[in-house]
Amino acid sequence: MKFGNNIAPHCPVCGSGEYMTNEDGNRNDYCGQCGTALDWECMEDIDTDEVVNMGTYREWIEKLKEQWIGKKVIFENEQYTVVDVDYNGALLIDKKARMTDTTAVGVSDIKTV
Fold first, then answer.
1. pTM, 2 dp
2. Average pLDDT for residues 33-55, to the nearest whole number?
């Protein structure tokens, strides 16, 4: 979770502050906009400008695509190429998975070559 000065808690992925709680007022475990898991115990206090400059969810995904597509990465001690970024911001590498031609990995799970 992220928050800033005079800004309500919001999703660290899509920036949405909607649906952070349910009808009873209890905190949701997942963002109601994009489905990202929310960690209420680890809230990051960020500068207000960073929130404003985050852009829309689509802009954020496009930035990730520009940054990562085509890059060589190491995952599980093997080299792969990032071929896309999914709607949650996970990197799709060219490692065949059980049902797809790609495997989704987080940025923290890989090393750049």
1. 0.56
2. 62
